[in-house]
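Narrative of accomplishments. A recurring question from our advisory board has been how the design workflow behaves on a single, concrete structure rather than in aggregate. To address it, we present the structure tokens for one chain from the evaluation set, followed by the sequence designed for it. No filtering or post-editing was applied between the two.
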């Protein structure tokens, strides 16, 4: 079984974005690095849009 078959919700852009933001924010917080969640959300959005434009995005348009 492939990874995305096991976790199909990761193909949803909103879900993937939330998971990435929460993971980065919590990891940085644990390492005592102060970064606002809003800044992380903006960075994740830009990266996902770039990947989508390059055709490297794997998420569905939902």
């Amino acid at each position: 079984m492939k990874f995305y078959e096991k976790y199909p919700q990761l193909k949803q852009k909103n879900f993937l974005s939330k998971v990435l933001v929460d993971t980065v924010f919590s990891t940085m917080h644990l390492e005592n690095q102060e970064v606002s969640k809003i800044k992380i959300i903006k960075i994740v959005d830009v990266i996902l849009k770039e990947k989508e434009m390059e055709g490297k995005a794997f998420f569905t348009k939902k």
